[in-house]
Amino acid sequence: MSDASDVLTPGAKAGPWIVEREIGRGGMGAVYAVVHEEIGKRAALKVVHSRLTPSFNPDRMLIEARVVNQIGHPNIVDIFETGKLPDGRPYIVMERLEGQSLAYRADDGKLLPDLVISILLQVCDALIAAHTSGVIHRDLKLDNVFLIDNPDEPSVPRVKLLDWGIAKVIHQNVRHTVDGQLVGTPQYLAPEQARGAAVSPATDVYSLGVMAYELFLEQLPFEAETSAEIMAMHLRAAPPPPSDLWPDIPVELEQLLLAMLAKSPDARPSMLEVAHRLETARAAFDERRRHITNPPAVPVPVAAIGSSRRLSPIGRAPTLPAERPALRRWRYAAGAAALAASAGLFAFTRAGDRPAAAAAAAAVITAPANAAPTAVLEIDNAIDRAIESEPLAAAPTPADTEATDSIAPTPAPLHAAGAATAPTPPVKRAVRRATPPPPRNAPVAPRRAVKIDPDGTIDPYR
Q1: CA dihedral in degrees (53, 59, 62, 64; nearest 10)?
Q2: pTM > 0.70
Q3: Which residues are tagged catalytic?
Q4: Residue 354, domain extent
Q5: Among 273, 293, 313, residue at a domain's last position
Q6: 459 in helix, strand or coil?
Q7: Which domain-ending residue is among 66, 94, 122?
Q8: How many domains does the chain have?
């Protein structure tokens, strides 16, 4: 919580700049919207907190302005003036940005991978330029990345990298921190920063890896209740594998995140390599999206073409095994035998021992066992023609329903000695004659036809 004397009220002046309102506040200072009293230029004024003034190096603001102008990159905020307030607090004047911080945007909702990669690539461009100029940011975090509207591509905001106040200028012996002071934010500290060792461009690679891990997986790699525990985890603990939190993460992206979070600075990729591998990950996302919107056609097996079998939707593979020819022939034989038996019984009961019926039955019996369904149908039709060719008998009288027929004596069997026994006398027996068919003009129920199932089997009892 800041002191009342620490706040600049609207109308207050910092050199030629007039304060309009406060637009942000952080651990090191506050930011105000200001306007130039003479030319009307709109800008942002950053002022250090009063409580930090005794231990704050006043050259730090000047160093930040020099660093920013030394790099001169469009993804880095522009600083164009420095000065001091009447109470002695230093300030810098920089371009006013209309937008929101990346931390606020990430808290507002999930960022899609394509947008995350686009933002990270812009941060990489700014850091590559800084490292080329011998500058290390040392305080990368979501709060220091500002997103502004991009007229050229509205779906992808422009990035401005902020807060270069604790940036390290390599090969310049300039001390602008107090001995023992923690430089950086614990959640994003590289292991060498936590040990107080020398920093390098690989330090920014580690902090950017923490940012990328947080944006892609929506959580920090190391979280604890105290800053000391978090720094200890940066030194010794391994981050959770990204695939445990996001099973569908591309392999290239998971490998990149783990490489950026390596404990040893020498094991981390350079910032230029990070940018190249992010491009590769974006290509993997594009390829995955093409497969989802336009899935490749799956060829249909040749054996399934023209088949009446049901096919599964995946791969169009048959869901039933192919039927062996031998099994199919046995099904035909069984069907033909059943049809033969029923046809013979029907002919016997309808026509007795008439020659035509006997001939039809003989034709059925002599049919091959492996006859095809069409052959079985032809036999059935032959039975119909044979029965219909018989002349119609006269209507029977009640007296004719019971009659006696003589049965010829059977030959005497031969004994072992070859002598014949006496002939057996004729035997009288009652024979029930079959009822003749109704006249042709009377309605007759249609015969049952043979049903051939789709799989080739015969069902004569439909």
Answers
A1: -80
A2: no
A3: 139
A4: 324-389+450-462
A5: 293
A6: strand
A7: 94
A8: 3
